Amino acid sequence: MEQQFVDRMLALVRARLEADDLKGAIALIEALRPPDQADVFGDLQPKQQEVLLSRLQVSDAADILEELEDEDAAELAGRLEMDALATILDEMEPDEAADLLGDLPPEQARIALEGMAEADEVRPLLKHPDESAGGLMTPELVTLRRWMTAEEAIAHIRSLAPDSETVYYVFVIDDDERLCGVVSLRQLIVADPTARIEEIMDPEVIRVHVDTDQEECARLMARYDLLALPVVDDDDHLVGLITVDDLVDVLEDEATEDIQRLGGAEPLDRPYLSTGVLTVAWKRIRWLLLLFVTETLTGTVLRHFKHELDTIVALAFFVPLLIGTGGNAGSQTTSTIIRALALREVDFRDFFRVVWHEIRAGVLLGVVMGAIAFGRALTWGTGTTMALAVSLSILVIVVWANGVGSVLPLLAAKLRIDPTVISGPFMSTLVDATGLFIYFTIAKLVLRI
Amino acid sequence: MEQQFVDRMLALVRARLEADDLKGAIALIEALRPPDQADVFGDLQPKQQEVLLSRLQVSDAADILEELEDEDAAELAGRLEMDALATILDEMEPDEAADLLGDLPPEQARIALEGMAEADEVRPLLKHPDESAGGLMTPELVTLRRWMTAEEAIAHIRSLAPDSETVYYVFVIDDDERLCGVVSLRQLIVADPTARIEEIMDPEVIRVHVDTDQEECARLMARYDLLALPVVDDDDHLVGLITVDDLVDVLEDEATEDIQRLGGAEPLDRPYLSTGVLTVAWKRIRWLLLLFVTETLTGTVLRHFKHELDTIVALAFFVPLLIGTGGNAGSQTTSTIIRALALREVDFRDFFRVVWHEIRAGVLLGVVMGAIAFGRALTWGTGTTMALAVSLSILVIVVWANGVGSVLPLLAAKLRIDPTVISGPFMSTLVDATGLFIYFTIAKLVLRI
Q1: Where are the alpha helices (DSSP H) in B140-276?
Q2: Is residue A23 situated within a structural domain?
Q3: Do residues B49 and B175 both lie within one domain?
Q4: Total-model pTM
Q5: Which of B327, B335, B365 sits opposite A260 (nearest CB)?
Q6: Which residue among A190, A244, A380 places its CB closest to the CB of B158?
Q7: Which of A64, A299, A370, A426 has a Cα at 20 to 30 A from A167?
Q8: For A337, which residue in chain B has the nearest alpha carbon?
Q9: Residue A332 belongs to what domain range?
Q10: How many domains are there within chain B?
């Protein structure tokens, strides 16, 4: 829906630029909301971007740099005059400015930072990794004291006139500057104007340390429906705030990572079409190779059963079917368990409950699939004993795949490896080799080869 | 972290209950935050839950029913006295109360609804499906008029004393009750007290219709960083509000659905360990069967090449390796494209760009993998021509898998089928059969069988 709108606006902006009507182009862009501005802007030519960015209102230029993908923003910022860049950086949210500075070449970042009026706000943020609470937080916050009245608190907030939406939770600090309470703006408005903050505030504040991982921050905010999460340092001093829009970005990024890893590829850092073919291939080749090496095990198993294959070539007909079904059953299990782990519905202590759950589900599935495979093998005219071997193999392989598919992600979580990494493709590769072994062993026994 | 805390609290509550100290147990539960209350509560025995729920403060009971999983909440509510249930429902957020009523047997829901004081707020919500904007929204909202001053607006909000966090965006309606603007509570506080609402408000309000799908609502809120999204009916009358905590739940649910579908299983509606083995198996069997039937194609292909297999049994050794690698390359592609589609980074109009991107990535990957396969086949002592056939097949299969892996999700999106449904397992099953055909055709040509 917005995509069509953005495409049409892009066409209009381009038409203005081609007619050398810079003012017209600027008016169009300034009429848009920031995410749409960034989308239109991102599709212009580099030269056009540079010209426009320096003519736009500084606040719009700041919004655009915030909304662009990190690498695109850094590339564009690197081409600007350092003075112009410093002015725009001053207008950006401090956490976004810090991220952008972190993506610039060190020398450029140093010069831009020196030119900034609000360098002091941004500098402490540069110390923290992007994916920690310290990297996500904004240091712009309004703090209250316990002895203030609700009326005084509102007047205080009004006098600071914060320009961001960080005021919906206001934090209270004690004489040692330690975080000691939280009030929502709603509570302040609704409260008796003469009530003291310490009477209204909730002293039990959920907080995170600057080093906390962003995924943990997001999980806390999602669990407790928080609009803002305070960040403290080693001495419990309030140093910043994570807002709900950051939470949403983190949730999306983490889901993207999980989904790409499930497919057996390193996550891409940028939108798909802006990622070069070489990078795409590079992100995948390591996994593809590792899986290839593991998969060569299947060849070893097959050569081990060369005699059986020589005797009955028809055994080979069922190989892809059997290992494919094992892989599918295993994928169903891993993807379910991985998600349950991510949502903290299960953890390693549920090991036996989970595995037992999956084994039973595997038996149910295996019996049904085995029965159907038996019928199918008969219609291929393979004879009853062969059909029996195939259907028994399906049963055992499905149960085995469910077991492996549940054990692997749980073990990974225990060893603090991201369970998605050893998931999908890795699990099916493992099930391929072991499944073949199960199949030929059963066939050997049933067919007495 | 919270899990350990919840477990310890659970042990304490159980100890109180065993000592027949109901008051002590209630005091412990009432000291917790709602999500923790629900976790502790959910692990108690049904009998204990009933006894406790009727003794807890109504607001705590309401929080617990809101936080429990839908089916658990419905089960528990169904066991309560209808009067007690009606009192608790009155205290719940109207959208949550409507969801719960929708999950009860119709006769019970009717009686409970009749007992409610706020039935009129909940009744309209029952008309909308859970997964639409109308099902997500809360009808509790504060509206302003354009001619009010900022001071009057704040006084109006204070006089209504809304008990939820829905006041951070306040919506303005015109004389025909149509939505005509939005102001944030921050703007009201910071504004000159005598300024009129129509001067402060943003008249360009992003809104959704009651029938809009929840995923679209979540996407709009995430894109534009909205804390609340207004919902309108056919006449553009403001009928409700979707808040950011609903957005977070939708994002998590949608990611769960995508991940489970990628694994080739219908999404579970409940937390993993509360889902019975039969349900787990049932959610999977349809896909497993469908894939099984598709996978029998591989047997057909193999039987078609029976002569070649009879001549050189060693051809079979490479079957799992080749189709496995094809499946892996295809999975990498589908999972990337599916995520790019979900984030709207690409759509069907990018068809040729995407496919071309993947084909080139496939050629890069295929050349590398083919070279390695050539070496590996030689060390297995298969002879140069056989090694050549294998490595050529790998190259073609990887390129083919990348192509299929990008075309399928794009086509699904075009046909408005959820791309995850035809993803992972389905794609690899398809690549298995076609990969075999490619392999044997190449082997036949190279080895002149």
Answers
A1: 150-160, 185-190, 197-200, 214-223, 244-262
A2: yes
A3: no
A4: 0.76
A5: B335
A6: A190
A7: A64
A8: B272
A9: 276-447
A10: 3
